[in-house]
Amino acid sequence: xxxxxxxxxxxxxxxxxxxxxxxxxxxxxxxxxxxxxxxxxxxxxxxxxxxxxxxxxxxxxxxxxxxxxxxxxxxxxxxxxxxxxxxxxxxxxxxxxxxxxxxxxxxxxxxxxxxxxxxxxxxxxxxxxxxxxxxxxxxxxxxxxxxxxxxxxxxxxxxxxxxxxxxxxxxxxxxxxxxxxxxxxxxxxxx
Length: 191
Description:
The protein has helices at residues 2-5, 20-38, 53-65, 86-94, 108-118, 125-136, 140-152, 167-178, 182-190; strands at residues 41-45, 71-75. By secondary structure, the chain is mainly alpha-helical. Strands 1-2 form a two-stranded parallel ribbon. The chain is elongated and about 65 Å long. 12% of the residues are buried.
């Protein structure tokens, strides 16, 4: 399929042929390098700790091929470390191509500042901020969505107990569950 769009760079390949996986990896690298000739390319991998082995293998392969090109590879991960990421992290570190940035969640003070920025300050704001922080674990998206939903229901000044799960978060969870296999859904329901 890639050869149709980039006929001068890529020859058709079958991944099941001898060396097919490497040829496929190279074809994708060539595609990205071709795009980088015209403009900066950013490849972003969200929650890379859940990436399959083929994706990790391709990133290992590609990291040695990109060189000084205009390609930036960004990946986000939670604190969950998997053994499958170790070779990639080590290889990129050895090549001087890895910069690790640790991002913490919002502090209680940041939640309080956000709360005061979106509504008229009240005496119980510190307690409200602690409750929101505890419920969301400092997760910025969760805090903001929880505030938004509570503001829409005019409940931000007097929090309900328990705090609701914001509809946007529920939709995300439902969407991810819908992509699971029937067996995985059965296991999830049993849990």
